[in-house]
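Before a colleague's protein record goes any further, I have to sign it off. What it holds is a sequence and that sequence's fold in token form. My question to you is simply how this chain folds and whether the tokens agree. Thanks in advance; the entry in question is below:
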Amino acid sequence: MLQDLFQLHTMRARSISHARSQLQGKYVIIIPEISHESPNKVHTMKAILFARVSTEEQKTLGHSLPAQLARLEQYCHARNLEITKTFSFDESAYGTARAEFDLVFEFIAQQTEKVALCCDKVDRLTRNAFDKRVGALYDMAIAGKIELHFTSENQILHKNSSAAEKLCFGMALQASSYVSNAISDNVKRSIEQKVRRGELSGRAPFGYKNVRVDGRSDIIVDEHASAIVRQVFAWYATGTHSMDTIREKLKAEHGIVWSKGYLDWALKNSFYYGEMVRKGKLVPHKYPPLVSRSLFDRVQDVKAGHQKKKAKYAGIPFAYRGLFRCDDCGMTISPERHKGGKFVYYSCTESKVKHGAPWVREADITEQLAQCFGRLKLSDDVLHRLVDKLREVHAHTTDFHTQKINEHVKEQRAITTKLEKMYIDKLDGKISDDMYDKLYRQFQEKLKDLERLLRELRAVDNDYYITASYVLDLASRLHDLFMSSEPEEKRHLINLLLPNPRLKGKSIVQDVRKPFDMIMECNDRQVWCAR
């Protein structure tokens, strides 16, 4: 039995020796190192989660911040990645100024060990293929300092990435840029088309309001706010109000608080007379204007005058300060308080040449102005006869105006029909885009001219009798209005009657505006000529 065991052991030893000789030189036997650490401890890479949405994508279900973070956390748990920092924010990835992304980049740069930056997709990281920060992250990944993980696209970029993996990352980067560029192009085309139709993109200025009509955005006139805009322009056009006094009146009468900057912007806004600014150019819009072009230009003239010489005179205690000039030398008539501050006197500053200008009491100036306004007062009999004659003359002009208005309206409709047909020809490819744009601008200019002519004709037709009657009635009441008005209103009435008020010695030089000069002259003669 012992002999049998010895033979079995010998045969086993020979077999093992034979096996070793057969394996020698062909295979490498790897013997695992003996670790002194705990058998349950495993080395893991730290991960940084990156979730981003833009304003337009906030409401998109699949790209919301919670949805992105949930996918990223699940991804890290499945791959045993330790989440060390989470960045979640709302920011556009198309531009170069990205404050939130800069914080992410700075945090990664501060890490002393290799980390994994985990994003849902490449377009969550950037939509700009030329973003230098993304290029720097790519270089860090290829150098082995970080890894870039894009979970939904199953892409990992690291130092051992193949050429195909790098190509896929580059293609995803270009695709994300293309999507943003395509959206931008579509928005630009949509805006240009709206401009051609005379429509405003964005928020309407004060005096108008944005509404939804049949599911589409539109702009209509706000009746209350538009009346305030007209009043502001009318106030400033008189030249008797400063920016501060207008702001005070807005607050007192309407409860509106405007800054000086906003008031200045409103007074210079061409939208109120019918043109909007597009790429630095004025283009007509389709909405009803709130003020006439003549009133707007008058306001700009007043503003230009105030820029050359500051308007220091409105709203101050001296009623006539800055209104009068010396007829001898052209210098300003300046006020001072005399006799213990009880009385106000005016005199030429004589800053150019001394000519012995006298001092004139404010009460004496008021009395002379009252006499000037009194010369406009008409008797009730004369006023009624003039109004009746105006009504008769007005009746003869109605037919002529109606005929001209109908002609212009007919021409306006014909041009509108041509524009509609021309647009269909453009869609069918019968005319080029350049030709369409050229003809469109020409027709729009013609429509603008026709609209202006129609406004003028309708204004003449509707206001001829009313305006003339109002002027005559106003002339008869100017004296009473002047005597009962506050200093601010007195200045307004003086500008209405006297275009260039001057003092020669102690007397007012009276150059009266039309048509008040004719009323005053005829009233002085007590003879009304046929003309």
